[in-house]
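G., before I forget:
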Amino acid sequence: MKGKLFVVEDNLDLLGLYRDLFVQAGFTVEAVTTGEEALRRYRQQADLPDVIILDHRLPGCTGLDVARALLADAPEQPIILTTADDSVRDAAIRVGIRSFRQKPVSNQALVEDVLALTMERHMHAWTDETPPPM
Amino acid sequence: MDQTDALAVLGRILENSRVAITIADRQGKLTLFNAAAERLTGFRSAEVIGRDLSMFYPDQEAMAAIAARVAAEGKVEDHETLLQGKDGEQIPISILVTALHDHLGEAMGSLGITVDLRERRRLEHELLRAKQQADFYNDLMCHDIRNFSHTLLGYLEMLMSGTVGEITSEQRRILGVCKRQVMRTAELIDRVRLLATMAPVDAETLTTQDLGEAADRAARAVREAYADRAPSIEVQLPRPHEVRADPLLQELLYNLISNGVCHNPARDAHVWVSWRGPDMDEAQGQIIVEDDGPGIPDHRKESVFNRFTELQASGTGVGLSLVKAVVKRFGGKVWVEDRVAGAPDQGARFVVAWPGASS
C-alpha cells in the first residue's frame, strides 16, 4: 500500500475513475460527495489521509470553503484542487492548496501529484517523528 | 412665417409628437395635454385640463423634489420616475421639466416632456435574461463538459495503459483518436470562452512580448496536442524579436500553427513560422505562418475567418475566428494567401500584421 487518499467529488463517474486509478496504484481510497460530509468524515479519522483530491464546485459549497476549513484543522494537509474553472487558481494558492489542476487532467499528472505529495508527507513524518524504515 | 402660422406649426408638432408633452401653470394645473400624453396615461385631454399635475405622480415626495429643482435650477433632465395611468398602472418614465417664463421673465408655469420607458425596460429585462442565459451556457460548457471530459480522458488513458487488459496496436490507435478528440473538446471550450469575453485593448495596455518565445511555446503545445502524429514545425524568427502585444499572442500563434496541422491529412504536416519585413511602405512587419496542407481555394480565403466556416473541414470552427478576433484586438489585419502563388493546393500562407508588430 502506498498511501491513503481522500476524495471529495460529486460526479460519481469521476469519483469511480479516481477509485479505479488509485486503488490500482496501491492507495486506499475513501470518497465522499459533499463538502459537509468531507469535513465530518475528515474530523472523525484518527489516521489522516496522505492527500486529498478536492473538487471545487460541490453541492452547497465550494472546494475552497472546504479547503479553508480542513487547513484550519490541519495546516499541513496536502490538498489537490481539481476544477473546470481556471479563475480560482490564485485563490487556491492563497488558501494553501498544494496543487491546482484544471479538468480534464491526465491520469499521469494526477498520479504524479498524489505520489509526490504522499512521499513528501511521509518524509516529513519520518523527519519529525521516527527514522525512516531501513 | 408670422406668429399665427408659427403657432399653427407648433400646434401640429405638439399633436404629432411621439413623446408626451404637457404644460402646467404656476399652480401646477394642467393647461396642455397632447395626444401622446393621452396615449401614455389613458386620460383624455378634456379629463385632465385644469387638474393638478400631482394626480399622475404616485410618489408625491419625488414630484415635490422635481418642482423644487425646476424652481431653483430652471430645468430637470432625464429624471426617471413613475407615472400613474388611468387604469392604475405605474409606468416608468423619463421626464424633462423646464420652467416657462413670459417675455418679462415672470414665471408662468412648466413644460414637461415625458418618455415612456416601458419598452426600454422590457428590452433591458430581455437583455439581462439573455446575458444570464449566455452565462449559464458558458458555465455549463466550462464546468460540466470539462468534468465529463475528465472522466472520459481518464478511462481512455487507463485502457491505453493496458492496466485493465492488453490491447492491440489498432485498438490503441483508435483510443488515441478518441483521446485527442476529448482534448480538443476542452480546447474548444477555452476558445469559445475567449471569443465570448474578449475585450478590445488600447496601445497602452499592450506590453513587450518576445515573438520567438511565444512561437516556440505555441509550437511545443501543438506538438503535444498532435503527439500521435509527427508534425514538423519550424520557427524561423529573428532572436530576440520584441513585439507590442499581450499574452494572447501565444494563443494567436497556437491557432495558426495548429490550423496548419489539423487540416493536413499528412502525418508529417509541415508548418513554418517566419517574419517578413518591416515593410517599408506600411512601416510594419508581418508574421508569416505557412503550411503544406491542402491550401485554401480563392473563394474561401475571406470566409475562412468567419466563425464556424471551418466546420466544413475538420476543425472546430472557431480557431481562425479567434485568430481574427485577437489580431483585430491588436489593431491589425490577418489574411491568407497561397504559399505558392497561383497554386492554392500547395498550402496556405497566413499573414498577420499589426502596428505593434514591428520590433
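The two ends of chain B are 66 Å apart (CA to CA). The first helix of chain B runs from residue 3 to 16.

More on Monday.
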